Amino acid sequence: MTTHPTNVETSEIPSTTAKVDHTYTPSMDDSAPLLVATPLYGTAQPETVIFDEAAVLPATAIVDGSQSSNHVQGDPLLIRGALSADLTASFSDKQEEPVYRDVPFAILFWVQLIVVLTLGFTIAPKGYAMMDFEKIKAEIEKDPDTSASDIQDFETFVAFAATYLSVYPARIITYLLYPTTLVAFSMALFIVTTIIRPCSHFMVTLCLIGWFVDACILMGMMVISNPSPVSLMLAVGVLSVVAYYIRAAWRLIPYSAVNLRVSLQGVQSNCAIYIVALGLAEIGFLWVFFWFYVVCGTMLYIGQTQCPDMSTEDDCDAQGPAFFFLFVSLLWTSQVINNLIQVTVAGVMGTWCFDYGHARNCCSSAIWSSLYRSFTFSFGSICFGSLLMAVVRVIRYFVEGAKQQRDRRADNCEGCEMLSCILDCLIKLFEDVLDYFNHWSYVFCGLYGYSYLQSGKMVLELFRARGWETFVTNDLISSVLTFTTFSVGCCTGLASMGLERLIDSMKEPDVFDAEAKGREPEQWEINTSFLFGPLPHAPFLALGFGFLIGVIVCSIMMSVVRGAVNTLIVCWADSPARLEENHPEFTKDMADTWTSVFPQARVYVTSLPQQQPEDAR
Q: What's the chief localization of this chain (predicted)?
């Protein structure tokens, strides 16, 4: 439970309870990255933490580790705390049973999901059944600019699309999608376990230097394409800023590297979490395809029933609200699936930190119990935060759409343009803040089972107690993960292109109706691929397809790593004693790195006799 005592008395702490008080006095040139505090380290004996009373808003946390294995399969759900605005509040060791959080938002989510499924199985099929190509053809013929050749091209395209979709998508999925997914997963897992984890310091350093190299390349291209004194001055200015940033972030390399290495060790110990994340992401992708099917069929149905005359849109006002609802549903459902992954990762990583015995193998019980908790107790909190993000993004999309529509109309309203730019900037800023805020909120949801608002209050407390270096350290780790994603995408793309050539050499391509495309049969067969059919440049299509699959698969796996890093930082700040009990070697590395990077952020630990002198209280 978290509080802000004004006067903290020193007292002995039993070995079964890790009571950690973080204190830090900010300085002009140094601050701690998440909490302005150095977690307590070295808790083999009862300790007393002596505070600097001049510290500003010291962050205090308590974790009762003696009960961490009493829950289902050792999950740290019962390791609880609560934020208190009362500065004189005291700690309480009372355990709470897990409860369902933010239930109304979970109910609202299931209601909208049922509505979309109902539309997909009832209304959308009716919409597709109402499609009348003869009517569409008649409407096209009404256009005076439409020629007979245009109508012929339309008929040819419809026939070709129907034939193509009946054959080639199944081949692409069978012969290309599954193998490239397996290649991307294996390659990402190999890079993470054999390169990044043992060489985390080198990888962080390499990516930090890579920022400057990329900036030099971009600025050099700008100067070459537009040689002028202004371009040269701009390039020098940008490179100076990048160089200054790298110099400021250089000292944080050890801190970022050790966080990345320890987090990867925790994920590797429970590597089945990658499979869980990929499975949830696959559900998300299938939902996107189903959503497109629903929205197209529903819009067709509304258009045919309320706007039978395709030449007018006077009676089609219902399409707008329907599309708005479906658009919010798409973003909300996608956000919920992504955040389910983050909350599950937080629960697994928290169990690894606090109760290693239940999270030490590939398919540990911590994975399945954390996944269960994400779908039950914390599901309402996930739906709450996801709904906020979905609404903000919908507003941003509509603002950007209105801005583009005004630009197409060549509207010269200067005041409107300025107002639109300000609104767009504010919405994007709020979206970025909410996205960053949610990352930490879901860590608390996964670790302690808080509601969304309770987690948010704790995040605000962390914002008050941390320095700007958090953004730097997060950027350093994110750069390594981004570089890994790009590398896996490139390698998977090359493998996909080679696989397409191999399959094409072993299988004979099909010959479509050559006359329908106006080609000779011999030419048609030469230009036809077994996987992509008559589409041109099949090897490069395979390259792009493989690159996309590799980036998607690796991005999902890297999101697991990113969530593990965030969870490790919170666990390290909340209960370093419990972390040391389970992982003494890693705790020593983190403590040594922390104190070397932030030498002024110290918590002094002393061992005192049971009877403390009066002046020490």
A: membrane
Give CA–CA dist 244/212, Å, rounded: 10
Enumerate residues 6+ apart whose C-beta is below 8 A from 554: 184, 187, 188, 484, 485, 488, 489
User: What are the backbone dihedrals phi and psi of residue 533, each rounded to the nearest 5 degrees, phi first?
Assistant: 70, -140
93 touches 81 (CB < 8 A): no
Strand, helix or coil for residue 15: coil
Q: Tens of pLDDT along 37-90?
A: 333 333 333 333 333 333 333 333 333 333 333 333 333 333 333 323 332 232
User: What tens digit of pLDDT does each residue of 284-315 get?
Assistant: 999 999 999 999 999 888 887 776 655 454 55
Question: Which of these, 249, 247, 251, 205, lies nearest to 599 by C-alpha position?
Answer: 251
- Tell me which DSSP letter residue 18 carries: E
Q: What are phi and psi of 83, to 5 degrees?
A: -80, 135
Q: Which of 27-41, 77-91, 335-349, 475-489 has the lowest mean pLDDT?
A: 77-91
Distance (Å, rounded) from C-alpha 389 to C-alpha 602? 37
H or E, element range at 49 = strand 48-50
The answer to whether residues 249 and 480 touch, using CB atoms and an 8 Å cutoff, is: no
Crossing angle of helices 178-191 and 469-506, rounded to 10°: 140
d(CA 60, CA 47): 15
**pTM, two decimal places:** 0.77
Residues 6+ apart with CB under 8 A from 496: 176, 180, 183, 542, 543, 545, 546, 547, 549
The H or E element that residue 104 is part of is helix 103-118
Q: Any idea how long the chain is?
A: 617
Decide: 8 and 48 in contact? Cβ < 8 Å.
no
Residues 103 and 266: their CA atoms lie apart, in Å, by 31
What's the rounded Cα separation, in Å, for the pair 486 and 525? 35
Alpha carbon distance 129, 150 (integer Å): 25
Question: Of 40, 99, 133, which is closest to residue 454 (Cα–Cα)?
Answer: 99
What φ, ψ does residue 323 adopt, rounded to 5°?
A: -65, -40
Structure tokens at 577: 């004693």
Mean pLDDT of the chain: 76
For residue 269, the tally of other CB atoms under 10 A from its CB is 18
* Alpha carbon separation from 48 to 12, 40, 64, 609 (Å, rounded): 6, 10, 17, 10
Give the burial string for 30-40 (b: 16+ CB within 10 Å, else e). bbbbbbbbbbb
pLDDT digits 0-9 by tens, 89-123: 322 333 457 789 999 999 999 999 999 999 999 99
With a CB cutoff of 8 Å and minimum separation 6, the contacts of 474 are none
Query: Helices 229-249 and 200-225, interaxial angle, to 10°?
Result: 170
d(CA 19, CA 94): 15
**53: its two tokens:** 């009373």
Rounded to whole angstroms, the maximal C-alpha distance in the chain is: 101
- 605 sits in which H/E element: strand 604-606
